[in-house]
Amino acid sequence: MRIYIAHPYTGDEEKNRECALKAEELLRQATPNAEFFNPVGRLSGRFEGLSYADVMAHCLSELTECDGIVFCGDWKESTGCRFEAYTAKQLQLPRWYGVGAYAATWAQVESKAEHEEKMAI
To answer: What's the pTM?
Structure first.
């Protein structure tokens, strides 16, 4: 499972990078076996020198390879995040609005699986 993390970047890049990394850490705690694509976090350095259009093209291409997307921070105020939201909707990807929503969903999945396993014994 590969999950895309959408988080604002421009405006206060250092603060946004820190927040995106914290979000990724919390998401990894909820689903440690998932892979995360976090363009604002550890990957942000690979976009240096690229135009905004090139960065967005790369990110949207990566989004097509993901199984869902989590929107973090003030994503509604970010043009890039809104592009990602539109694309995710068109791709019919599962969308979570906030780390808490993602974690709660997977906690329910885990609980249901445990219940099913007990019933099968």
So the answer is: 0.86
